[in-house]
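USER: Note each token:
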Amino acid sequence: MLLKRVVRAVAKKHGFYANFMAKPYTEYAGNGCHVHISLRDETGTNVFGKDEGILLNAIAGVLAHLEDSMAIFAPNANSYRRLQPNMFVPLHATWGWDNRTVAVRVPASGQSDKRIEHRLSGADVNPYLTVSVLLASILDGIENKLTPPEPIEGDASLLELPMLPISWDMSLHEFAHSQFMKRSFGEDFCKVYLANKKHEQARFSAQVSPLEYQWYK
């Protein structure tokens, strides 16, 4: 968050405008916020590199809770402009080895730097909430020894798979009914977050957009 403030200030000083919207331009792909996560034990050893079973458990945990977490990973109206087909963003709960078309990627690496790359979030996320949700998902996957589906090879966007919530309404609905979110972050947090986002959604929906003047005048 501090980095965003610094970038905005420096850009303004030089006569530019720094924008961290997930989808600032209609004709171009959006801005992602990929998060790389590794796990080390008390000796500094990379657990994901040493134990592939734990790596797979962690991946399964992230995949299992993507739907519940979309209201965090895509927190506002503009977030869903980015979540469209053919915009280089994953739309399904998929994973793969060094595959840039999936939601959860394991980059090509050695044992010491084996890690998970979460590729779903946009640049507009709250990074603290995003990382907290990913860590809670990983913990759930490891503690309950969850198993992921088979890794995707090739272009995941070409497969007919269940879609993640790619509208604000859908993601808020999943969040509101998520026992995982309530269990991980408490009912008070979930209630306040949902109320704020519902209020934001209502105010956004009440605004008349320039496109409406073009189409419906």
In short: The CA atoms of residues 206 and 212 lie 12 Å apart.
